Amino acid sequence: MKRNQIIILGLFFVISAVIYVILRKNKADEAPKGAKSTTELFVPVRKVLNEIRPMEITSYGQVSPIVEIDVAFEVQGRLQKGTQTLKPGVRFSQGQTLYSVDATEARQTLNARRTQFAQLIIAVLADLEMDYPQSYNKWVDFLNKIQPGTMLPELPAIQSGKEKMFVTSKNIVAEFYTIKSLEERYKKYVYSAPWGGSVVDIVSEPGSIINPGVKIARIAKTGDFEVKVPISLAQIDLFKSKGVAKFTDAKKTLVGTGKIIRISDVINQKTQSVDVYYSISIIGNAKVYNGMFLNASINQVSTDESMGVPRMAVKDGQVMTLVNDKLIVRNVEIVNNKPDTVFITGLKNGEMVVLEQIQSLEKITKFKGITR
User: Do 133 and 147 sit in the same domain of this protein?
Assistant: First the structure.
């Protein structure tokens, strides 16, 4: 019995050894075969065809009024409404009273000074009649024109040095100019619109007490707009050479044309762009509003032969080309762009440019192009 068990156990070990040798041999044969296998990847490509083509170079800009100012008074007092209640968006016409300040106290003070001034003249009329009879009547006429609530008339013409010294010594000239100064200040209790426009912002409401120089509202002149357009340093010379631009709204509808008014000499450090300011002439019944964003474009013929590729094909100024089933990285220059397309130079006609950036290239040994 033991002998049979030993024989069976021996056969088991022999068979196991034979199987192990066979498996090792198969793995050795498969290793070279696996090394020879290839992994292919199909990529979208396009044959390079460079052309000199007309291009529309675009940027964007925001509409703003050419004139926009803060409303403030030079006097103190209780704010009163003008001819209409002002709220943001309300339109007004030139010369319309926008606000006023309660001038009751100032008006009474001014009338009192006019009355005192009339008394000064009455006090010297007897001397004028005796010493300067030729001037008496004109001073009487001047006195009769002094009325509370009306501006002082101009001083009578003084014909001699003695007369001038006389009225000056009686403090008439000094008081006259003091009252004229108060009258000019009295005019500042009313704020009239310097031009037709609309209200941008309201800070203080009628009934509040305002101080000199404190902002009450902000108004903008309507009809005269400008557009601030940030232009990249690479394109600034093109926009400057053209001088004019077309403006379209978000729906690509042409709304106006404009000319360069001025160019900022300060560069935006974040975007490396220069602010260019355009006037804008509205076309037809197009509507343009303060704060509206518009697209600015100029027509330009490219100076270099270029071709268009999807924006995703370019990364950090480089594209991939397909050469002998391999991907080669090439440097290119972007000469123009559209929302989903960029125009590049730096490739030769007939080359195959890859239309997207390919990631994880380590496991791919062979690339095949699919023309699009």
Answer: yes
d(CA 246, CA 260): 11
And the tokens for 317?
Answer: 């100024």
Contact 156, 36 (CB under 8 A): no
DSSP designation for 306: B
Q: Which two tokens stand for residue 260?
A: 């360069």
In the numeric block, which tokens belong to residue 285?
């019944």
My answer on whether 360 and 315 are in the same domain is yes
Which among 109, 184, 176, 103 is positioned nearest to 145, based on CA atoms?
Answer: 176
Angle at 363 between CA 361 and CA 366, to 5 degrees: 75
Tell me the C-alpha to C-alpha distance, in Å, between residue 65 and each of 69, 191, 228, 291.
Answer: 10, 21, 10, 9
**Residue pLDDT, tens place only, 45-86:** 999 998 887 777 788 899 999 899 999 999 999 999 999 999
Bridge-based pairing state of the strands 40-47 and 366-371: parallel
User: How far is Cα 35 from Cα 23, in angstroms, rounded to an integer?
Assistant: 19
Q: What is the extent of the structural domain holding 146?
A: 104-187
Over residues 168-198, the pLDDT tens digits come to 999 999 999 999 999 999 999 999 999 999 9
Rounded CA-CA distance 280/277 in Å is 10
Q: What is the total count of domains within the chain?
A: 5
Beta strands 333-337 and 341-345 are: antiparallel
Q: Is 134 left (phi over 0), alpha (psi -120 to 50) or beta?
A: alpha
| pLDDT higher than 50, residue 34 | no
Query: In this predicted structure, what is the pLDDT of residue 351?
Result: 92
Round to whole Å and give the CA distance between 60 and 175. Answer: 60
Burial of 111 (0-12, 13-18, 19+ CB in 10 A): middle
